[in-house]
Amino acid sequence: MKVSQALIARKSVRAYLKKEVEKEKIQFILEHARFCPSGVNMQPWQVCVVQGDKKIELENKLLVAFKNNQKELMDYDYYPLEWSEPYKSRRKETGLLMYETLKIKREDKQKQYDQWAMNYKAFEAPVVLYFFIDKSLAKGSYLDYGMFWQSIMLLACEVGLTTCPQASLAEFPKTIKKELSVPEDKILLGGIALGYEDKDALVNSYRTSRIKVEEFTTFYE
Predict the structure, then answer these.
(1) What whole-number distance in Å separates Cα of residue 26 and Cα of residue 155?
(2) Residue 143 DSSP label
(3) Closest Cα partner for 22 from 49, 55, 57, 53?
(4) Smallest Cα–Cα separation from 175: which of 80, 81, 68?
C-alpha cells in the first residue's frame, strides 16, 4: 500500500472484530514507527501495549470512574478551553455525523451516554496503545509525538489493521498510571485503539469531511 493510499484509507474505527491481533504485527508497527523524526533525535515516546485480561481490568476501572462521575484532571489541555470558529462548527459537524449515522436523536441522552462510554473500552478493540512523555519536555516533543502516532496508524493500514486515536483515554491519568505502574511524573498523552475493523458495524460507515487545500494554504512565488 502506498503512503498516499494509506492516508486516505485510514479512518477512526469505533467497532472491532473479536479477533486477536498478532504480536508480530504490533512488533512490526513499533519497529518501523521508531524511525520517525524527532527534534535532536530525542525520541520522546514511551508506549504501553495493553491487551487481554489487563485491558479488561483497566477499562472496567475507567468505566466505573466515568459512570460515577469521578473526574480526574488531565495532564494537559488537549482541546481549547473556549471554542471559536471554524473549529467549533467542525467539532459539532463531526459529532452530529456520528449520532445521525447511529440514529441517536439529540433528546436520547442515554444512548449518547452509552456511546460515549465506549471510548473507555477503546470501542472493544483487542489492543490499546497508551502513550506517555516526560514532563520536562517542551511543545516540540508533542509535535514529534504526533508524527509517531501518524506513523503507527499508517503502518497499521499496511498490515491490515485499523485504529482510533483517542484523547478520551487521557481523561483518567491517575487511574491509568496506577494500573500500568507508570510514574506520576509522566504525562499521559492518550491512546490508540488497534484491531481488525468490523466492516458491518454501522458506526464505521461514515467518513468525516476535509477542507480543501486552497482553504488552508497560501503559495508564495
Answers:
(1) 10
(2) H
(3) 49
(4) 68
Q: Residue for cell digits 477499562?
A: 59
Q: What is the pLDDT of residue 106?
A: 86
| Number of residues assigned to the chain | 221
Residue among 83, 187, 89, 88 nearest 139 (CA): 187
Q: Assess contact for 31 and 151: CB atoms under 8 A.
A: no
C-alpha–C-alpha distance, residues 122 and 60, integer Å: 11
Neighbouring-strand partners of residue 130? 48, 191
Q: Which cell goes with 70?
A: 469521578
- pLDDT tens readout for residues 132-179: 999 999 999 999 999 999 999 999 999 999 999 999 999 999 999 999
Q: 16 has which bridge partners?
A: 197
The model's pTM is: 0.95
List strand residue ranges (DSSP E) for 42-180, in order.
Answer: 46-51, 127-134, 162-166
